[in-house]
Design brief:
Blueprint: E1 5-11, E2 21-26, E3 35-36, E4 38-44, E5 49-57, E6 65-74, E7 79-87, E8 93-102, E9 107-116, E10 119-128, E11 134-143, E12 148-157, E13 163-172, E14 177-186, E15 193-203, E16 209-218, E17 223-232, H1 236-243, H2 249-265, H3 271-281
Parallel strand pairs: 1-4, 2-5, 3-6, 4-6, 5-7, 6-8, 7-9, 8-10, 9-11, 10-12, 11-13, 12-14, 13-15, 14-16, 15-17
Length: 289
């Protein structure tokens, strides 16, 4: 109802776009609270290939609401890297929905970064609607102060012989709060499905909290599906090892936390995207110096 702007990206069949396509949404207001409802539609033709990054940023600290919708349709044999990066105002509310439909033998590699915002919710829905489709869904969220981040993912395996892999990591500080809810749905016809899901969280504050809920709903009998979740703090042995090498405690924490982050950033196949995301994360580690 409030849709007021957005983009339409169409990749013709058998076209390989060499350059990164960067869609940048900037929200700022000098007149108080506002609502922004951007819509992105991405159509990737058969045997086409593209790399797209969608960023939501702000240069102000004013409160506002972003209600973003992204719809992606991938035809047969299409290949797409899709990244979403979000660093809103510390007082902003961001509600984002991404829906992806994949046809036969399509290959999706996605990454979601949440770096700032008072309340953020990312809903990611992937429908594997063709034999041989493959989806990689990775994400990173860093929460501090009283910020709250929700990540909800669902992967719907409909035909046989499809694969999906999910890895989401989170770092929480102060009184930050995060929620991860990942669901893998395997229909009766989706025999020989291979699906994996893992959520890992690092707690750096005494008041922070994360609720993680990986889910499997399997109605086929010839599948390989696993899921898991971990929540923990930095290893005292690792901190002690670094401090015995004359490394101050704050810097040791930064090194270990940075390694936790770099492990998942290294899964991004596009170097320019990794560079842009590192720019958004730079101040997140400045306190550990």
């Amino acid at each position: 109802a409030f849709l007021n702007h957005g983009v339409l990206i169409t990749i013709d069949p058998k076209i390989a776009v060499e350059q990164l396509i960067h869609v940048l949404y900037i929200t700022s207001s000098l007149e108080g609270e506002i609502v922004s409802a951007p819509c992105s539609i991405i159509l990737v033709g058969g045997s086409a290939e593209a790399r797209i990054l969608e960023s939501h940023v702000s240069f102000s600290r004013t409160p506002y609401l972003v209600n973003a919708l992204t719809d992606i349709v991938m035809d047969e044999d299409a290949k797409l890297f899709y990244g979403k990066a979000q660093k809103e105002s510390p007082e902003a509310f961001h509600i984002g929905t991404t829906r992806i439909w994949q046809k036969r033998d399509s290959q999706l590699n996605s990454f979601c970064l949440t770096a700032q915002g008072r309340l953020t919710r990312n809903d990611l829905h992937v429908i594997l609607n063709g034999t041989g489709a493959n989806a990689i869904l990775n994400g990173l969220y860093i929460v501090r102060d009283a910020q709250h981040v929700d990540n909800h993912t669902s992967v719907d395996h409909r035909p046989p012989n499809c694969t999906s892999n999910q890895l989401y990591k989170g770092i929480l500080e102060d009184s930050g709060r995060a929620v991860f809810n990942g669901k893998i749905f395997v229909r009766k016809e989706a025999q020989q499905t291979n699906s994996y899901q893992l959520n890992k969280n690092l707690l750096l504050g005494k008041g922070c909290r994360v609720d993680t809920k990986p889910q499997l709903e399997i109605f086929a009998n010839d599948v390989r599906c696993t899921h898991g979740a971990t929540i923990g703090q930095l290893s005292e042995d690792e901190l002690f090892y670094l401090r015995t090498r004359s490394i101050p405690k704050d810097l040791a924490i930064k090194i270990l936390a940075r390694g936790f982050v770099d492990d998942i950033l290294n899964t991004i196949p596009e170097a320019s995207v990794t560079t842009k995301l590192n720019c958004l994360l730079k101040d997140k580690f400045s306190r550990f110096t």
